Structures are given as C-alpha cells and as structure tokens.
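Supplementary Methods. Inverse-folding protocol.

Structures were first reduced to a discrete structure-token string of length 235. This string, shown here, constituted the complete conditioning input.
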C-alpha cells in the first residue's frame, strides 16, 4: 500500500486519511491521559489558548511541554502523568510538535494521532476501515525524526495484516536523537522513565481519533478489537 510520509512543513493539501505521529512525547502522553481517566483531549494551538480554554470551562485541565508553569496542571511527560487521576476530565493539550501536526490536518475526513503505545490498535482501526493509503505526518524535527518515522513505518506495515517484528522499529526510536535528548535530561518536564514508556509497544488497546467538536479539535479514544473481523467473502 502506497502510504505517504510527510513532515508538517511539507503539508500542502488536505489528506483523506491522516495519522499524526509524535512518539516523544505528545501522543504517548495523550494515550496515558486516557488511561488515567481523561474523557477527551482538546488540542490547542498556543499556550495562551490552552489557558483561556481551561479558564472558560470549569473543571478543565491544561497540559504543556516543558517545565511546570502557572495555570497548567500537568507537563508533557508520561512518567509524570501515569500516577494522576483524571477521571471524567477534559484535558487541553499544547505541545511543540504533536498538537501542531494534528491541527495542521484537522480538516481531513479522518485524523488519528498515534505513537508506539497505540500502534497496533491504530493499524487495526485503519485496516478495518479499509482506509486505503494514509498520509503519515511525522511531526518531529521537520519530518525527519527517526522515532516518529519508525513508528509511522511500523503502523503502515501492520496495516497489511501480516505479522511485523516491532524490535527494529523500536531500536530506531531508542537510538534516535529525541531519545538521547530525553535520556540526557536536555528536555524539561522530564521523568527518567519517559523513554521506556514511549517505547512500550501496544501498551493500550485503543486508537485515538481527532474530530471537530464545537469549533475545537478534540481527541478521543476508540476501542479496537484485538482480532480483526474476518475478511470479506470468507465463510
């Protein structure tokens, strides 16, 4: 299947199906947030917008990249997020790359956000939808981040329905510049377990679909069966 891999700067047309990849760390964090009870994630274009949305909606929470800051309830770290209780809450997320990429394709008919922790469910969701070729938005490093490209290529291979060995793709991600920066403490708002948590293949059993809701772009989890339905025409 002829998938297309593009960085955010290379987006020129609205794709039919877009999968936005941010392994380290936006869409690993989003998946963890859902696992900790978040009902939906609103993707914000700026930190100011994130705070304004939070302040105008009682009970909403806000999350950003970098160090903790006034008004924000969490930072973009799976290690720091995994002990939180967000049951029933709405989380507003603003990150440097992931949310930017998702908002850049928000008008596409089908948008998913993904990382290794939801890679298998994302592939099955797309396969069950018979979605055809996918535009993978590689958000890191202007579209050259190897951890994001590896994840995108892995999902693309899994969509074919064959058994795919994850180890080579995870190795590329673990030896990427982003992983080295995280492990070296070069990014603020960091937990020592972040790299390992970003490389847990299929930790969660849902895909994450972004849709417009009341002028906002909202990410929600969608449960995906472990076993795909029988092929058409099989008896």
């Amino acid at each position: 299947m002829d998938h297309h891999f593009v960085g955010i700067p290379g987006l020129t047309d609205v794709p039919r199906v877009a999968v936005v990849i941010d392994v380290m760390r936006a869409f690993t964090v989003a998946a963890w947030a859902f696992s900790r009870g978040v009902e939906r994630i609103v993707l914000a274009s700026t930190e100011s917008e994130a705070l304004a949305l939070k302040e105008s909606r009682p009970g909403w929470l806000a999350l950003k990249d970098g160090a903790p800051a006034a008004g924000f309830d969490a930072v973009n770290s799976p290690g720091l997020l995994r002990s939180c209780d967000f049951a029933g809450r709405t989380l507003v997320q603003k990150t440097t790359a992931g949310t930017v990429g998702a908002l850049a394709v928000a008008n596409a008919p089908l948008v998913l956000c993904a990382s290794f922790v939801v890679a298998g469910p994302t592939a099955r969701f797309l396969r069950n939808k018979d979605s055809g070729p996918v535009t993978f938005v590689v958000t890191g490093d202007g579209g050259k981040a190897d951890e994001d490209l590896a994840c995108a290529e892995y999902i693309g291979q899994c969509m074919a329905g064959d058994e795919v060995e994850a180890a080579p793709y995870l190795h590329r991600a673990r030896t990427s510049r982003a992983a080295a920066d995280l492990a070296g403490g070069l990014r603020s708002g960091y937990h020592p377990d972040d790299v390992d948590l970003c490389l847990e293949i299929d930790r969660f059993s849902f895909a994450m679909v972004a849709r417009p809701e009341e002028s906002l772009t909202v990410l929600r989890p969608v449960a995906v069966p472990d076993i795909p339905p029988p092929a058409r025409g099989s008896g």
